[in-house]
Amino acid sequence: MDINxxxxxxxxxxxxxxxxxxxxxxxxxxxxxxxxxxxxxxLDILITSGTFVSSELKNHADRLVAVEASTKQAHKRIDRIxxxxxxxxxxxxxx
Length: 95
Hints:
It is built from one helix and no strands. It is mostly helical and 95 residues long.
C-alpha cells in the first residue's frame, strides 16, 4: 500500500509540474507576442521617419545646389568689381 501511495503522489507531482510548465510557457509566449508587437511598431515609426528624413535630405540637396549657383554668380560680380577697382587705382596712379 505504501508503494501505491508514493507512486500516486509521484504521478500527481508530475501533473502539477507539467501544469506549471505549460502555464509559464503560455505566459512567455504572450509576453513575447507583446514584445514583438512593440518592436514592429517601433520599426514602422523608424521606417516612416526614415522616409521623412530622406525627403528632407533631398530638399536640402536642392537648396544647396541653388546656393552654390548663387555663390558662383556672386564671385563673378566680386571679381568684376575688383577688376574695376584695380583699373581705377591704376588710372589714379598714372595721373
